[in-house]
Amino acid sequence: MERDFAVVTPRYLRTPDAALHLGLSPRTLEKHRCFGTGPVFRKLGGRIVYALVDLEAWAEIGTRRSTSDPGRGTVHPAKRIDPGAPVRR
Hints:
Elements: E1 12-14, H1 15-22, H2 26-35, E2 42-44, E3 47-51, H3 52-61
Antiparallel strand pairs: 1-3, 2-3
Helix pairs in contact: 1-2
């Protein structure tokens, strides 16, 4: 008797896997979450998860074609943002 097994593609990633997906360390992603500079996340129970589409959307903000390309926005470093600094989005 054969059984069909569906391949489940994860829609949500925990912090270590989300960081790996983005090429960051988990600690850097945690800092982004604390400072509000990172991708959108969800709290499900006591767990922090990231939707794949949100990770891709956040990474897409930093897309550039050249060093002179201003792009659509800025992916900030994982540190506190100066409230007096102008915001580019």
